[in-house]
Design a protein that fits this description.
341 residues; alpha/beta; 7-stranded mixed beta sheet; 4-stranded antiparallel beta sheet; 13 helices; 11 strands
Length: 341
């Protein structure tokens, strides 16, 4: 019953057996939600149920080797950066256990001093925390950033006694199929995506200036006359219509994803599934999908976290505060303690 409901929401692959019945019984004992007669199980309750069940199964089988986190809305608030605090302490705790941690973000900045600065600013709090803890090199080597969905990889290293980031060369970490993506085809595809974004934004009376990047194109629509109008439904409309347009371009073989942020819509080459798969192979430990978990807040049909489910388990968070709670419970489960208490 729960699996059927969950799959109807587009969950994708399930890489482990979850104690769903036991978890549902526990949640029912706390809330009585299964005794409701008129109101069915809500999507929010499904999210809580599966999050709890996925964490609980690690108490029986603590084989977790890689955990990836979305950035905005997951590790930190939209438009903010990761500051030193409770969340960075939990990330350090995962790394100290031998688990590789990665920020998997849509933010794409090409290799160079400016790009390196932008990524450093996003995780500055963690780098400072690792520096303050005098973390050994084997711990530092367990933090990565997958940028632009799957188009850039950075690793954490020590240089001149400072904890810093450095780009990993594409040929060192990308899979063969990713390296085969044609640059000219990418450029042409992004131009088509730009035209579609502008078309549908203008149709909804938005004023837009497209932002073209190496592996992405996006818009941040504005309605000057209605500054307080909710953008959510309109951004969803643009996202779904552009996805439909691009799916009809049979001449292009480049994989892509399209998603809406808080105030923008972007089309990216590849998706987080490609990035997680490439990082798993790059780590060279034979890491299985069942030994990875992705934490994100954008698993809906207009988000960019859903693709991660093809390559890992998933936890659907609602805020950075909930991410802290989920991480605490996961660490407790990895120590063999049940979370159903």
């Amino acid at each position: 019953c729960f699996i059927c409901l969950y799959e109807k929401k587009g969950i994708g692959r399930v890489h482990r057996c979850f104690p769903l019945v036991r978890t549902a019984a526990f949640l029912h004992s706390q809330t009585g939600f299964l005794d409701r007669r008129k109101v069915p199980v809500t999507p929010h309750e499904m999210r809580i149920l599966f999050n709890t069940a996925e964490i609980e199964q690690f108490s029986a089988d603590p084989s977790l080797q890689l955990i990836t986190f979305d950035g905005d809305g997951t590790l930190y608030d939209d438009g903010h950066c990761l500051k030193t605090g409770e969340m960075t302490g939990l990330l350090c705790a995962f790394m100290a256990r031998g688990i590789t941690v990665a920020l998997a973000t849509a933010a794409g900045y090409p290799a160079g001093s400016k790009g390196l600065l932008r990524y450093t600013q996003r995780v500055e709090g963690l780098l400072k925390d690792l520096q303050a803890r005098n973390a050994p090199d084997d711990v530092l080597r367990r933090f990565y950033i997958i940028g632009g969905e799957c188009n850039y990889l950075l690793r954490c290293v020590r240089k001149c006694e400072n904890v810093v980031l450095e780009y990993v060369d594409d040929k060192e970490w990308k899979t063969e199929d990713m390296l085969a993506w044609d640059k000219e085809e990418i450029k042409s595809f992004l131009e088509k995506a730009r035209d579609s974004l502008v078309l549908h934004a203008n149709r909804l009376k938005f004023s837009v200036t497209p932002l073209m990047k190496e592996y992405a194109v996006g818009i941040a629509p504005k309605r000057p006359d209605f500054p307080t109008l909710s953008y959510g439904p309109a951004l969803n409309e643009i996202t779904l219509c552009v996805r439909e347009d691009l799916s009809k371009l049979s001449a292009y073989k480049i994989p892509f994803c399209i998603f809406k942020g808080r105030t923008d819509v972007f089309v990216d080459i590849g998706d987080k599934g490609y990035g997680i798969r490439a990082l798993r192979e790059f780590l060279g430990k034979g890491i299985a999908c069942s030994e990875c978990i992705h934490v994100g807040d954008q698993f809906s049909n207009t988000g960019n976290d859903a693709a991660a489910r093809e390559q890992s388990l998933s936890l659907w968070t609602g805020s950075p505060e909930e991410t802290i709670q989920l991480s605490q419970r996961l660490l407790r489960a990895l120590d063999g303690h049940t979370t159903l208490v």
